[in-house]
From TrEMBL:
Superkingdom assignment: Bacteria
Protein name: Sulfite oxidase-like oxidoreductase
Region described as Disordered: spans on this chain: 1-24
Pfam family membership, one: Oxidored_molyb
Organism: Phycicoccus sonneratiae
Taxon lineage: Bacteria, Bacillati, Actinomycetota, Actinomycetes, Micrococcales
Record-annotated Oxidoreductase molybdopterin-binding domain positions: 35-179
Amino acid sequence: MNVVTRGFAGRRGPSNPRIPPGQYLETDFPVLSAGPTPGVRTEEWRLDVVDTDGTRRSLSWADLGALPHEDLTTDIHCVTKWSKLDTTWRGVPLEAVLDGDGAVATHVLVHSYGGYTTNLPLEDVTGGRAWVATHYGGKPLTPEHGGPARLLVPHLYFWKSAKWVRGLELLTEDHLGFWEQLGYHALGDPWREQRYVGD
């Protein structure tokens, strides 16, 4: 059975240099998930950071709240071919979460409540390129959009911005995540249309 689909047909609107090839402009915020929406209370939420040597740190919601936060406005692009412009977020830069962990790591495997995973090169989530987001549009993230906290990696297709984040596993080699094991691209650069293996 083929589990990889080429996505929705999509609607191509007027040319816009901020919209990658094969994408159309979306003004709503579609909700797409690989499984049921987990209900995670902030009182119970934890984010585990596991270094390459197995060392583990666990951040509580209060720990995350004590880290420096940033407000950002960015465009996002879904593999199902919609793009949404000028989305506003608040979150903690991933460097602040890692706090020096991962000195020899090359990749991170992101774990979510509900069992979802996605893999990313460490260089794509550091250097001001990724956040643990807690707010969207000036309000706390709702569960359907990944609340209480999700990864935000806006320069890659949005399946890489894992909802309901609960763990960051630092690795010295790449390990494919949920969709990547089913045929999605290991990186997912929307400007190169890296939707599926071989793109």
